[in-house]
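Read as chain and fold; for instance:
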Amino acid sequence: MWKLNCHSHCQGSLDKIKAILPMILSLSVSQYMIILFLLFLVQFAVACACLAVNKAQQEKLATAGWKKADNKLRHQVQIYFNCCGFIDATLGKEDVSGLGHPACDELKCCENSEAGCCKRGGTNSTSTVSCPCHTACWSIINEYMDQALKISGGIGLFFSFTEIIGVWLAFRFRNLKDPRANPSAFL
């Protein structure tokens, strides 16, 4: 039964490839150049957008992401980056601004601490002991985000210019005859 289902599925995939292949092969060089040029435009625009994002826009994006994330994801971020809270460790998870965070109890900075940020369900405002975790998640995420945007933008620019060189080469050599061909043969 499984072999029959796998065979039907594989056969269906091959049928789709056989149906699409003639369409791809029927593209002339000029259509190929148009597709490559459109791909260049999209990739160039995305690369420029990645490089143009400034610190304030990055913070706005990260803040919106933190506000939409549930406490489980916020907790995972805190453990992964070894940080407490997005901007302020004193905000509890029920904070009305949406920038609150779950307890930082599993972090190294909270070992043997009685601070409210280190207790499950507590905040720093209910404790007389100040939070020992001084690193906010935004300061760490900011470095990673900035680096990732610069790398993505640089790689995108490199490959977009590689594509434009491909368009130029296709345009330049599109009607070139093969020098090894018989000149009296019908082309």
